[in-house]
Amino acid sequence: MEIKIVRNILEKNELSADRVRHYCQERNIFLVNVMGSPGAGKTTFIRSLLPHLSFTASVIEGDIASTIDAKRIADDGYNVVQINTGGSCHLIADSVLQGLADLAPVSNSVVFVENIGNLVCPASFDLGQDIRVLISSVAEGDDKPYKYPTMFQCADMIILSKDDVRDVIGFDLEYYSQGIRSLGIKSPLFPVSFKTQAGLQALTAAFNYRAGEKFRCAE
User: pTM surpassing 0.85?
Assistant: First the structure.
């Protein structure tokens, strides 16, 4: 019975995810599902990329409670809407669809969806996104690909944040990278320090290219 309930929840979410995809296809919106642990740097990733994008962008901010991160993005001068789950450990496609309606993004633009901080549940719920971006922090340790394989396997881009403290913490980049390779993952890995901006230029160029692919295909 429990398996049936879970299956029904996922099937309902898939239908809503298809509606999100239809919404974005009609308006040529590049939808980005940003995932990672609490404190990994999801909001910082979004705020760091926004000024360097080649396209108009806006944000759907997901949190269990508060509007702290949404206020930071709004203070930066970008359109943002807040989704508070009230306890749920992941966003669902229905919430994203409502967020898009409230946000009303312009055509040919990028929309970031910051998911709830969690390395388990968000991997199972399709939001209708074009890509999933995983933010994995050096501070979390170098064993995360081994412990949370599903999250890494579903990511289209993997960003290793807080790279400026890698040596201080004793983070083994080769061990971490080997864990990713052992899962057969082909997604690119970007070590980045958002504090020093080391690696940010390469990440921004790759992201702009990925978003541009969608917009070029729609021409």
Answer: yes
